[in-house]
User: Fold these one by one.
Assistant:
Number 1:
Amino acid sequence: MSNQRYSPEFKDEAVRQVQENGLSIDEVSARLGVSAHSLYKWVKRVKPEKSDEDKSELLEAKGKILKLRAQLRRTEEERDPLKKPWRTMQATPSKVRLYSRTSRQPVST
């Protein structure tokens, strides 16, 4: 393993051969006497970043997920009372009493 340093121009030319001429990394590395690993790193470093596009797509997807989760929560809240048995719904005491406990007469309000 050598610690040989390559000039930026040499690296650019090697990457150009891979990208523009369509040669494989193995061919270019053998032709120039450079390790394939180094050439892979150079090519990867030169590739255009898609981070801005990826970020916008990711934010759009997250927004859609949040919207769908909210819609699912609303749908489940609408559905859940229908799952309860009728007796448990009737057994719930009312907070407003229409009759007094002793006389069974309507309470004046």
Number 2:
Amino acid sequence: MRYVMLMYPGPQAETETNPVPPGPEGQKLLEDMMAFNQRMVDAGTMLGGEGLKPTRMGARVKYQGGGKTTVHDGPFTETKEVLGGYWIIECASLEEAVAWARQAPCPAGEFIEIRPVWTPEDFGAEAAEIERGQMEQMAAQAAEKAAKS
């Protein structure tokens, strides 16, 4: 089963221009995080993941119904817990996903939320077949784009 591990790094996610603090402590944190990611890759667990820039560099689109939306530019001051990054992992169980999250080199006060990912099969065979077709189409488009660059 696929899970997403969502990292909430605390207030520094909004104040830092670079998520790694300067100096040796920050360098060690970066090295530890890269080593953690590599262990998950080597185990065949990590499918993807990235850090996210501060909310001041983003926007929220709020849906109001009837096809109407409003856009709010960041920062999102009402947000107390800001998402700072994520991993997509493949694990046999929630317990296995928790075991991986417990190994993440996060400083005190940070936390990781783990949630299972909906799969097309959860919505039935027809939805799964449609998604397989879309994934094949996206892979072909990505390969074509890569060949051109």
Number 3:
Amino acid sequence: MKNAAIIISLLMLCCAPNVQAQDYAPLLMDNIIACEGKALSDMPSSFDGPECTRVNGHFASTFGRLVWLKGTVRVSEGLLNGRGPLGLYISAKASSAIWLNGHKVGMNGVPAASPEDEVPGKMDAVMPLDRAVVHAGDNEIIIALSDQHGFIPLVAPVHFIAIAPFLHVTDDILRGYLPAFLPLGVLILGALYFGVLAIRRHEGWQDFLVPLTALFAAGQLLSEVSRGLWAYDYPFHDVRLVLILTCATAGGVCLFLHVLFRFVSAHRLTVGLIALLTYLMLVLPAYGFDNKSSLALLVPACFAALIASFAAVQRAVYAKTYALALFLFSCIIALAPTRFLDIYFYYCVAALLVFLFAQEIRQHLAERRLRAAEQARADRLQLILDESRERVSPTSLKVTASGKVELVSAQDVAYCKGAGDYVELMLADGSCKLHSATLAELEGALPGTFLRVHRSYLVNTAFIASLDRDASGAGSLLLKSGDMVPVSRRIMPSVRKALA
């Protein structure tokens, strides 16, 4: 099981694609002039006034204000001479209006200096671009941006501005997200399967931690890929970011609690409080939602790795493999924290969940084997007790036949054979008595020393000499009297277990 989990995880990581972006000309984000605006009709005549500053375009604050940006887009000859229409792409948490080389390209919503005047635009938009207004080399671009309807002031609200071959923006985004549906399927199926397994086991709420980890990871991934499913208005982006962070936090907590309850029996509350304080100190002041969401999983994963490592030193079962898997997972996040939303991240999450699923299956199978062995010992002990009770106080059967009632000791019955509404009682001396009852009724009256081996046969275990099994899975019992009694294939496993 462990080897299978490792192989599946490696295959998933190998399948994770490295999506190549199409040929595009991006806005030079580190050479932007930003000016405070009062109205969309009030474009600055020059961008050198006291209200203007040089900024990195990604970090131009648009929250609760109208801002004008002026920068440069460098277009290559290859892009300009290519086939098909061009588009000007903008991904920003804001409404926008764009001019290129003095020509108005279009509007995404209506940017404004007040919420009443603003019409929210799409988070990701593309505007058809006339090739006549574009030339090779540097092209001047002016953009009006405003975020009057969002509720989270992002540090970097502008994600992407570029000229590229025209595509519907959701098609372009979804193309990058399509490979994420493989780990999404793994997470959803794992959450459903192990959730049902936890319900059937009835052993405590801790059994739900692994399926909940998978469920929150699936919710996180669904929140992420929603950007490629439909072009939503930019205020929904705040909701999406909160959902991603919430799912990452909940998934990290479930992962930590799973490891905590698996390997720590004493001082759980103390360990949990230390982890909580560390989480609050590191995650709350973290810079940007990407870093917050990464740390929301990294901090619990690191604590879980430490717990598993300490348990491995104490020689706890499976602790070493847990420590190794959690350490590798933590290193992947720590080495690329700002690439939280990358497809590879979700493959790594899915790979970790595959490992946890394998551990759950292994533990479940071990528990089933243990319960089966305990049940076999209990059945064997019960048989011994029944045999002892029969020797001290034999059970007597009231055999009714032809209107007569006769008492027959159960110790003298070698086996019983069903014959319609009657039962043939085969006695140790070779005689046969016909009893007017069904085999099911007789089974309830006989002591535990009698074993159902076939739908038509009950056998006194005291008379069994040997058990033979044929290639079909069925078999037969040889009795001390020399009689052969068939054993059905369906009942054979329980017969072998009872006679072991």
